[in-house]
Amino acid sequence: MCHLLLLLILGLSGAYCGSHTLQYYYTGISEPGHGLPVFVAVGYVDEIQIKRYDSNSHIARPSVQWMETVEGDPGYWERETQNLKDHEAIFKHNVKTVMSRFNQTAETKRKGTNNRHPNSGFHSYQEMYGCDLYDDGSTRGYIQDGYDGREFTTLDTDRWIYVPIMTEAQITAQRVNSPEVGAAENDKNYLQGRCIEYLRKYIRAGSAELERKVISQVKVSGHQSDAVTKLHCRVYGFYPKAVDVKWVKNGEIDLMSEEAAQVLPNPDGTYQLRVTVEVIRKDGDSFFCHVDHSSLKEPLTVLWEPKKSQTNLIIIVAVVGVLLIIAAGVGGYFIYRKKNHYTRPQVTDEQEMH
């Protein structure tokens, strides 16, 4: 539940084709309840959960078998548990600090009593950070913080400073950017160093799962309404998740989809995606669905071919129906003539003699 909340808040983009990514999601809340621990931390490699810690268990545990031991680091899990216990305390403090920035003090003392402030209640402070490793050896790092479903601060990795996204985050950004704290410089060293180092270790440990490639299957279809044709390109059964799907007109014009395209998981661990565009067809136009995925030796291009229109089908059915009616009428007429002697031609005496 915490992971889902973080994805919705921070809008994290996944790994690109030919890359691996290590991502961490931390969530601290102002009070227990709502089915959530006070603090939760989860780690992912290429969207596969590899570890989890929460304030109920106070233990960091592997989520997959290949993470039970970490290469060259026998004390990894003990150290990870202690590290996340420290983060739990930090996040409890961060929640209260940011609540004060918004004048949402958990309790206000009045006349010697502890009455709840009208703005107190459930609040969350969240952080997402990670690093990407590309096939060419280049890397990318990122850190974002969110509060109550909105982005709070983000790390500018060009200038290596924290940028406040809302007014209430300005004090926090000034403090972490100060020479005394130097948070951005420390985070730069981590994202470009240790984060990538451990990502490489995790990739080696889980290579059987992380390096597998499942070939995409593609189907195209179209539906015409008045002058507009809606084209669908369905790509399904592919792994890993990173994929590039687009519609191309006449082999050179990329068409933009007005509908949000989401990569969705399948029960077998693969993914599916549908990309839809609306076009106004003209004679001679061609439309292709272009799919680029790491499971393919080269990008796949599928041509959409319109089926015969419903109008033509109706005309064909009507013509066939008329012909059948005429044939049935003619056949009935001849049968009737044979059976009805009043309609038979009379035979003369001369015809009988011959």
Detailed description of the structure:
The protein is an alpha+beta fold. The protein has 7 helices and 18 strands. It has helices at residues 2-10, 76-101, 170-177, 183-205, 207-210, 310-339, 349-353, and strands spanning 19-29, 39-45, 48-54, 61-62, 107-110, 113-116, 124-134, 139-147, 150-156, 161-164, 217-225, 228-238, 243-249, 253-255, 264-265, 271-279, 287-293, 300-304. The strands form 4 sheets. Strands 4-3-2-1-7-8-9-10 form an 8-stranded antiparallel sheet, sandwiched between helices. It has a 4-stranded antiparallel sheet with strand order 11-12-16-15, with no helix packed on it. The radius of gyration is 34 Å and the shape is globular. The model is unreliable at 1-17, 107-113, 309-320 and 341-354 (pLDDT under 50).
Which properties best describe this structure?
354 residues, globular, single chain, alpha+beta
Query: Roughly how much helix do the residues carry, as a percent range?
Result: 25-40%
The shape, in one word, is globular
Secondary-structure class: alpha+beta
In round numbers, the mean pLDDT is 83
- What proportion strand? 25-35%
Which stretches of 5+ consecutive residues score pLDDT under 50? 1-17, 107-113, 309-320, 341-354
Compute the CA-based radius of gyration: 34 Å
Strand order of the largest sheet: 4-3-2-1-7-8-9-10
What would a concise description of this structure say?
The chain is an alpha+beta fold and 354 residues long.
